[in-house]
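Appendix B: complex inputs.
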Amino acid sequence: MKPILSVQGLSKVHGRGCSKCIETTGPEQETNICSWCGSVVAAHDVSFELHPGEILGIMGESGSGKSTVVKTLFFDEEPTRGSAQFFEHDHAWNLFDLNAAQRRWLRNHRFGMVYQNPHLGLNFNVSAGGNIAERLLMSDLVNYKAIRERALDLLSRTEVLADRIDDSPKKFSGGMQQRVQIAKALATQPPLLFLDEVTTGLDLSVQACILDLILEIQQELKTAMVVVTHDLGVIRLLTSRAMVMKYGRVIETGLTDQILEDPQHAYTQRLVASAL
Amino acid sequence: MRHYELPAIDEQEADSDLHEGTAYNFGFLDEYAKREVRRTILKAIAIPGYQTPYASREMPMGRGFGTGGLQLTLSLIGQNDNLKVIDQGADDSVNAVNLRHFVELTCPGVSTTERTVEATIIQSRHRIPEVMLREDQVLVLQVPYPDPLVVVEPSEEKRKTMHGEGDYSRLLTKLYEDIVQFNEITISHRYPTKINGHYVIDPSPIPRYDVPRLHQSPNLILLGAGREKKIYAVPPYTSAVPLAFEDVPFRTENFLDAQGNRHACMRCGCTHSFLDEVISEQGERQYQCSDSDYCNDQLAVLKLNQTEGVNA
Amino acid sequence: MNPILDIQNLSKHFTLHEQGTQIPSCSQVNLTATPGQLTALIGPTGAGKSSVLKCVYRTYLPSSGSMLFTQEDGRTIDLSRATESEMLQLRERDIGFVTQFLHCLPRKAAVDIVAAPLVRQGASAGIARDKARELLSTLNVPERLWTVPPATFSGGEKQRVNLARGLIAKPRLLLLDEPTASLDPDTTDRVVDLLNSIKQQGVAMLAIFHHPALVERLADNVVELAMAKHTLELPA
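Resulting structure:
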């Protein structure tokens, strides 16, 4: 089966960078910061493939570079080096060669993103239904009735009560805000969805609900997903494959159950053993 | 009543060949200022609907009184022009009178008129004349705030990107929220309109009634914002489509009463013009044509019909 | 009949970096699995029987050896060298694993958990649920539990849900790790009947049973695993 996303050598350095950046940073050096020029090597040489319908988890602690990877793929940040391709039918998009209009088109029609902070993914000046309408309008749907029906449908799928559709997200709990974000991201039925620490900070019961919801939706829509998290429980529940990162480097990749039951790398073993 | 006269200056103190013994250049602005405005106008016409920045001059009246429209008029006007100035459709409102007077003062020899059909330049605040304009006429509209996106995005940089990418989804979202709350789009003036398939403009505070007049007009329409330093244009025969949903189309004011009958102008009886609401001394609600020149025309026709009727 | 799975010289050891040791799990295993037959793995505890199954399923990464699996179109693939995506696809359609533990979503009803593999293969939700109910009933799972999430079930009840889920979709190769460990004799009998009927439908099975009697009832072949070598100290 052909992949839907392919990433090669993705790197992101904050700062001017120098020739010593790579060798002075990483898991062996236990740092992201280059000792020669002070630049931060957020991610270095990240490569992976994702197939349609797969859920890939990117796991790591703070500074691992996991968020950087999805931010560059969703065009929130510009990578320093590397290439990535998005495939659909017979067409391949070279992501980092695209211009602003093409990137915007992909974001509105093919990608979805759910952020940890709902303020990044939602417009708080607009109602919950309006947020979904905005995304549908960005994907060129201009029929009011169709938009309204779709918004109601999505919110009910994400278990937001229909009578809250016209309320501002300011009035919602954290869990509900995340659910509206998910509904909004799914509005255009994107084949590829990025989720960045979406349950971090939420109550446990709410976390379970949201993870449940994501899985249900994925099984129904066959969306390929990249799930960024530092939580092993989320990895276990959601993902079929996992990639472990530390200080910007990929430490290990494998099937999720294999990473959790037979971790190969010393760091992964330590991580798995530390799970509560 | 004597008009205020500009003081004559000492010929020796005249500082340039351009000035012929008066304190001001013809058209008040110096020729370089006019040239810059004209270049901006050409650029605005070349990119329909694009808010073109220009070096808006300080004028001898406060911002908010039509300095943008005025600079356009002054940069275009010549000895052969015939200028009409209206405010809310009326030639005799205070602002219109002052602007017309200013032009008369600074452009000696230029004619002014109240008759729409006789004007070559029409400067207007908040209305477009009822009578269809011709290819040889220019309509200048006064604009307070040119950018329709300012209500949904405070950052100018982001607004420019949105305009550049043709991304008006946030504006449409606002329309969606209106329909949700009020069952219809409640914008009455400054209705966002898409020009030539790309840029969405704020057409100035003209009522919805006038928006269809922007579409495929034979005349050039120029819009000037003095305070915000922007000029934009709807060139002749250009598409101008108000933003709406497929299933919630754009509607204009219908002036129907409770029984579904169209109100008529109390002065000329016209039932197809834009009406102003007036409260009579008795407290009654009455309606009158907003376009005073048009009302005059209609009244003349009415009187003619009445006379003929009597004679018949 | 040609084997569907051919394991040669399979060895697995764990390298624990923190402790600086290497722990052997299974060593030099050779066996085959054939469609329509059940191969039972026997041997003492610690001989690595579960490890063999887990290596086939890729829950463990084999340390050495080969596992040649014959796909539906006749091509063989070495499971120890297959890519992650290939393994995921094989798990979806060809290889099933009934383990001792039930990992599942906290809020999903038992009947939906069991129906899921069929739904993933394309069956309608209605038909899949009917089949699921049928299986749960065969396995003596009380009807009142069908719409309840299994988190609160007893060990035996969870095991039966697990079994139902593993058996419903009929993979070409079925791995079973002590499938009847927590079951009463009556339910055990039903499982034996089920496994026999699945065998007759051509499914190849590789199984570990805790009771020798079950091996006798079900196994067509028996492979005995020996204890692995001692723990090794890793060089510093």
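The mean pLDDT of chain B is 90.
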